[in-house]
Amino acid sequence: MCLQWPAVSPDLAPIEHVWDEMQRRVRALPNQPVTLAALEMWLRFVTLLVTVTTCSSTSERFVFSTSTCPAPNECYCGSVVHCDQRGLAMVPTFTPSRDYFYVLDLSHNRINYIPARAFKGVNVSAIDISYNSLQLNMDDEAFVGMEDILGKLIVSKTSMTSLPRSMGKLRRLRSLIIDHTLLTSFEDLVLQGLRYTLQEIYASNSKLTSWPTSVSSLRNLVRLDLSGNNIKVIPPDAFVNSASELQVLNLQNCRLTVFPETITSLTKLKELYLGDNAFSVIPLPSFNGIAGTLEILNITNTAIRQVPNAIKNLQALKKLYLGSNHITATNVGNDVFDGIISTLELLSFDNCYLTHVPPAVVRLRTLRMLNLTANHLHVLDQYQFSKMAALRYLVLNENLISVIKHLAFSGLGNLTKLWLSRCALQYVPSGALGQPPNLELVDLSYNRITQLVDDSFPNMNSLKDLSLSGNPLTNISKLAFRGLATMDRLHMDDCGLGRVPKAIQYAYGLHNVDLYNNNITCDCSLKWIANWRASVGLIPHIQSVCHGPNDDLKCGCDLVTLLVTVTTCSSNQRAVRLFHQHVPGSQRVLLWIRASHCDQRGLAMVPTFTPSRDYFYVLDLSHNRINYIPARAFKGVNVSAIDISYNSLQLNMTMKRLSAWKTFLGKLIVSKNVYDHHCSSFLWGKLRRLRSLIIDHTY
After folding, report:
1. For residue 34, how many other CB atoms are within 10 A of its CB?
2. How confident is the model over 55-83, as pLDDT tens digits?
3. Containing H/E element for 531?
């Protein structure tokens, strides 16, 4: 790839063009990565394909490669130089290299001093030295040599008290993250050196007690986060020079007693966060300068007692957060939303004092999400939301709702998700729930519902996810779920159930059932489950004789064990998912079992397991101090996945160690270890059913 740079170009570093080429190649992949791990894997591959040569007489060659690592042995390199979580007490000595890397990660160590020229010779666009010693200090020349390379610096969660002078010479620095530090001010000389390049400052939860005046020198500042400081007052000239480009301003929890009217000069502001402050009045002209640009406004948990009329002037507003204010329904003016009636998409009134839905709210015809959590609503009347045709998400959790009229949700043709958790419902509002034709999720958890009658959920032809968790269900009709042909997942955990409800077999599209934290007896009465699964073409992944109080009952049949109590490393038991295989064209059902974990127990060796014929989904031995896997360590333990990640850095295995797994192990996780790589290809080859192998961050 040949790149042309004119002699007067303001950007002579080729790394920007390399990133651009890499981005294009990743986007051209047939299967786009959807996780950070997958993205890093592809980046390692495409970087080997990108070679940039300048079209000049010197023909300098810039190669973005992973072939050499400038860090010492305790670190390792990919597209990121990983020196994090290594217990380092000082910055390691780096070998000068012409290779480019995305990040140098020195976070989560014990480094307490950054010496002069600490990073010289390391070509990275970002450095992360967060979460180090609480006594971290920096030499004024700490970043010498990084002036034309470094674009992002992260120094969070340290006790840094001042910005080193060399930081002001980082001519390409665009993002500065210095939150949770002991900074009391920003040095004028440092920020003046960054006035044309710095675009983002994150300095939340520091020790600022007054407005940092040097911020006004930043001509291209786009995002400023000073939340969690003790600023109290914003001076009128706070944004004299930086007002032209600022788009995001976060001043939450700054103890502001007066609304900062100076924000009206921020003519490009799109997001404004002023929650958790103490002002009680928002003057009418406060938003005049940003009326056509502001899209997100957060004024939660302040001292206001009514919806400010100034909001009606925000013609571009899309998201409005008013929660945790002492606002009653009578303090919501009928015309307060008139200016945004056709633009607002999200409105949050959670933790207020509404006793009914204000008329001004139901007139918002473009609203897609309405959050009324933790108010004082008692009754939902007929046609309560009928004018809100665009509404897709309605959150009514933690109210006192005991009555929902038959046509309360009529007219909500686009509603897909409805939350009614922790209310006072004593019955399923069948008629109301059947009104929205596209409802996919309904959460009725932790109400007072005691019974499910025949056809409790009529006309719900699109329902996929139903939660009844936490209800004291004592009577469930066999036909309670009849008609729910599309329901994929059913939550009935913590319902005090003593039996698996037979009603689930009439939800023909059901794939997942959550029944954990009940008191289900696993005896021969569960034979109907095996028959039901066989009748719909299911292949049980786990088969076992009954376990429970009737172990000695000679029923003469093999049953699916729903609840299996396992004696392993501790009595602390957690719910884990157990996936059942299925044949093509049929269903699969996910049931919950109970199992114990061996993770985070400080184990120095693999525990001795009691042989068992029961099958479990995972054996978790991660986050221990195990440094050796003996022969046949897991013989007699029937699991489909084993996790031995995050153990001793000297963890070793040989070919015999996995000999007992070869017929059933499907997934193996050995991340963050050092294992015997000389025989790894032979070792994995013996695992005939292994489908997933996770060995990242190893040697």
Report:
1. 8
2. 333 333 333 444 478 888 888 888 889 99
3. helix 527-535
Whether the CB-CB separation of 451 and 468 falls below 8 Å is answered with no
Find all residues with CB under 8 Å of 697, minimum gap 6, and list them: 76, 82, 671, 672, 673
d(CA 420, CA 429): 11
Place 336 in a pLDDT band, splitting at 50, 70 and 90.
Answer: very high
Q: Is 525 helix (H, G, I), strand (E, B) or coil?
A: helix
Residue from 224, 340, 333 nearest 291 by CA: 340
Amino acid 266: pLDDT: 92
Tell me if 302 sits within 8 A of 325, measured CB to CB. Answer: yes
Q: 239-252: string of b/e by CB count within 10 Å (b at 16+)?
A: beebbebbbbbbbb
3-class SS at 191?
Answer: helix
Asked if 307 and 339 touch (Cβ cutoff 8 Å), the reply is no
**Which stretches within 351-458 are classed as H helix?**
359-362, 430-433
| CA 190, chain centre distance (Å) | 34
DSSP state of 662: T
Sign, CA torsion 26/30/34/38 = negative
pLDDT band at 37 (very low <50, low <70, confident <90, very high): low
pLDDT band at 604 (very low <50, low <70, confident <90, very high): confident
Q: How many distinct helices (H) and strands (E) make up the chain?
A: 7, 35
- Count of beta carbons in the 10 Å neighbourhood of residue 534: 11
Above 90 in pLDDT, residue 628? no
Does residue 227 carry a pLDDT above 70? yes
- Asked if 151 and 15 touch (Cβ cutoff 8 Å), the reply is no
Angle at 219 between CA 216 and CA 225, to 5 degrees: 60
Which residues lie closer than 8 Å to 464 by C-beta, 6 or more apart? 440, 441, 486, 487, 488, 489
Quote the CA–CA distance of 536 and 533 in Å, as a whole number: 5
Q: Are strands 591-596 and 573-578 parallel, antiparallel or unpaired?
A: antiparallel
